[in-house]
């Protein structure tokens, strides 16, 4: 198959080359430098700063800890993860929105760290939880801390890439009222304070999806930085090919840096494994 985006540079990031820490209660793989893993070649990619693939044992989790000046989101792959902060008491489980939330597969929780916020993330069930923890760098510091949670349809992800995050529509100059309204550029997504789009798809065996760079939602149109990640969800049976390139075949846990692309370019994905492939797109300035 010929390359549709011959000008694009695609560099795989193999699962086995990621940073890795197994702490017993937490088994974590780091695409970028994080905690005790440091590699100067893998610090960030556009606004994308952290991509950890985590498994947390039942009855354990991350105790209360602070965040500041980062946009942080959790994408749940399997199991349950409970978020709490000091303002919300145990038992006050909420639904989608800004309040306490017990997350399960298909859910995304988003945190604007801004001027500072403290929370915990616990696996209160007796089964392991598997999720992606992703951080992006915001377009300005000192933002007002905020949470959002939202459930995204499995069925929709099986038909095409489903946008999950898109830039706050009001942009970097948003007023307090704009921040409170929290309107995203793309309807039915979570707003992020960055020129950044996240999408997810579940590509059936022998099926093809396409992603339009920029997701029709961004300000920076030239030289975007798109990271592709294939979570480890099918015991190694999922595999995709990017842009028809044999040197851009990704298995589970693998990712790829896609650069030298512009908004409007179309990147193709083929599912060539023995199981459907879950794929996350992180499209950054």
Q: How would you describe this structure to a colleague?
A:
Keywords: Iron, Metal-binding. Residues 1-22 are annotated as: Disordered. Pfam families: Pirin (PF02678). With 285 residues, the chain is mainly beta. The protein has one domain: Jelly Rolls, CATH 2.60.120. Helices cover 4% and strands 46% of the residues. The protein has helices spanning 154-157, 176-181; strands spanning 9-13, 19-22, 26-30, 48-56, 60-67, 71-78, 81-85, 101-103, 107-112, 117-123, 129-136, 146-151, 162-167, 190-192, 196-203, 208-212, 224-229, 239-242, 249-251, 255-261, 266-271, 277-284. A 7-stranded mixed sheet has the order 1-20-17-22-15-13-14. β18 and β19 form a beta hairpin. The mean pLDDT is 91.
Question: Mean pLDDT, nearest integer?
Answer: 91
CATH class: Mainly Beta
Which segments are poorly predicted (pLDDT under 50) over 5 or more consecutive residues?
none
| SSE string | EEEEEEEEEEEEHEHEEEEEEEEE
Please work out how many helical segments DSSP would assign. 2
Main sheet properties: 7 strands, mixed
- What's the name of the CATH homologous superfamily? Jelly Rolls
Examine the secondary-structure arrangement and name the CATH architecture.
Sandwich
What percent of residues adopt helix (DSSP H or I)?
under 10%
Please name the CATH topology: Jelly Rolls
Describe the strand arrangement of the main beta sheet, using strand numbers: 1-20-17-22-15-13-14
Radius of gyration: 18 Å
Short summary of the structure?
The chain is mainly β and 285 residues long.
């Amino acid at each position: 198959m010929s390359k549709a985006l011959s000008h694009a540079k695609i560099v795989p990031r193999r699962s086995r080359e990621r940073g890795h820490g197994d702490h017993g209660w937490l088994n974590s793989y780091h695409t970028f430098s994080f905690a005790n893993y440091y590699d100067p070649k893998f610090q960030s990619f556009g606004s994308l700063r952290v991509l950890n693939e985590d498994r947390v044992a039942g009855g354990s989790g991350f105790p209360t800890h602070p965040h500041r000046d980062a946009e942080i989101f959790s994408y749940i792959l399997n199991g349950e993860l409970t978020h709490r902060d000091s303002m919300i008491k145990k038992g006050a489980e909420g639904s989608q929105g800004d309040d306490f939330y017990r997350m399960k597969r298909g859910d995304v929780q988003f945190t604007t760290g801004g001027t500072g916020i403290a929370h915990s993330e616990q696996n209160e069930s007796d089964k392991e939880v598997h999720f992606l923890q992703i951080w992006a760098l915001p377009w300005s510091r000192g933002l007002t801390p905020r949470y959002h949670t939202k459930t995204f349809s499995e069925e929709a992800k099986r038909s095409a890439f489903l946008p999950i995050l898109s830039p706050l529509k009001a942009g970097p100059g948003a007023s307090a009222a704009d921040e409170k309204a929290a309107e995203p550029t793309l309807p039915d997504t979570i707003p992020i304070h960055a020129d950044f789009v996240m999408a997810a798809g579940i590509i059936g065996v022998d099926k093809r999806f396409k992603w339009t760079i920029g997701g029709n939602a961004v300000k920076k149109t030239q030289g975007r930085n798109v990271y592709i990640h294939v979570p480890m969800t099918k015991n190694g049976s999922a595999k995709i090919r990017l842009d028809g390139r044999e040197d851009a075949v990704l298995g589970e846990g693998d990712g790829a840096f896609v650069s030298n692309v512009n908004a409007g370019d179309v990147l193709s994905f083929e599912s060539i494994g023995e199981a459907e492939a879950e794929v996350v797109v992180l499209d950054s300035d």
